[in-house]
Amino acid sequence: MRPRRTLALVAAAALGLTTPTLPLAAHASATTDLSAVSGAGASAVSVVPCLTGAALRDQDVPVWRRGQLEDTPTITETDLRAVVPSETTRRSMRAEVEPVLPSRVTVPVYVHVIKGTHPRERNPFGPKRVAQALRILNNAFAGGQGAQNAPTRYTFELERTDYTKRDGWYHAYNNGPRDDRMKRALHRGGADALNLYLNRGGEDGLPVLGWARFPWRAAGTELDHVSINVDAMPGGLARGYNSGDTLVHEVGHWMGLFHTFQGGCEGSGDLVVDTAAEAQPEFDCTEGRDTCPDDPGLDPIHNFMDYSLDACMTEFTAGQVRRMDTAFAQYRSGRS
Ligand SMILES: [Zn+2]
């Protein structure tokens, strides 16, 4: 049903028969009630299959917001047990992780640029923009975005960029059948390789900023990926989210990080000891917000793993870096 309906609507859109007016969804929470969101948007979505060139004039560009669709698989008990907090203590790091991981890890990056067939979709991301994206990613992972940005051992190095023109892949639903087919067809490298897909995809016509799979679910498979909407990259149309930090956020998931608001105020939250608990995502940049007053510390609104605006996101914590290292050693290094 879905592909057939979409094809028909894409054809209609190409003929200028549709006028998108929907607010675009952005990347989203593992705790979001997806069914409610999908239900609310379903009727409107059915007439807005994709963004056409005509739809991307300035006056038609809606307000982007993170948080209406899931950008990772829904968190399960299996996810919560995949990297347990006791494995990320300093003592465990010294005994088990440090001997396995070199002090510097170079991550090979395969970039898969998908082109659409409508105007302004045909050459969305050339080599200069790919290089710029990796500079932003490397700066964040080197601790360069701010004084509180803990450095990591990872450097992302471009291995190859390929370009594919296919409208169905350009507008693929996140983690839908076409999205999976695209990933299986283009995926390169082993468990340590970052496969980065750039298109304008989203759930049932609601474009999302980005999505990713956790290492314990996908490392070493053809579905291991980070996907970013070209509008969430520098020069993209997603105002407030076009500085490149969506890429940093999604690679954070690829490294094994949960959202900072995972689990809300109760329990062990995101399983990282130095990110304060947070009841809900932050969508703006509300300084001093404290949604879990019984938990020490203000909400981590500047953390890359919250849903704040790009300009607000500047930090990984040392605890998050230890979790990344533990996950990488277990699932991506092939050495443990
Ligand atoms: Zn996320």
UniProtKB/TrEMBL annotation:
<keyword id="KW-0479">Metal-binding</keyword>
<dbReference type="GO" id="GO:0006508">
    <property type="term" value="P:proteolysis"/>
</dbReference>
<feature type="signal peptide">
    <location>
        <begin position="1"/>
        <end position="25"/>
    </location>
</feature>
<protein>
    <submittedName>
        <fullName>Pregnancy-associated plasma protein-A</fullName>
    </submittedName>
</protein>
<keyword id="KW-0482">Metalloprotease</keyword>
<dbReference type="Pfam" id="PF05572">
    <property type="entry name" value="Peptidase_M43"/>
</dbReference>
<dbReference type="GO" id="GO:0008237">
    <property type="term" value="F:metallopeptidase activity"/>
</dbReference>
<keyword id="KW-0645">Protease</keyword>
<keyword id="KW-0378">Hydrolase</keyword>
<dbReference type="InterPro" id="IPR008754">
    <property type="entry name" value="Peptidase_M43"/>
</dbReference>
<dbReference type="InterPro" id="IPR024079">
    <property type="entry name" value="MetalloPept_cat_dom_sf"/>
</dbReference>
<comment type="similarity">
    <text>Belongs to the peptidase M43B family.</text>
</comment>
<feature type="domain" description="Peptidase M43 pregnancy-associated plasma-A">
    <location>
        <begin position="240"/>
        <end position="327"/>
    </location>
</feature>
<keyword id="KW-0732">Signal</keyword>
<keyword id="KW-0862">Zinc</keyword>
<keyword id="KW-1015">Disulfide bond</keyword>
<dbReference type="GO" id="GO:0046872">
    <property type="term" value="F:metal ion binding"/>
</dbReference>
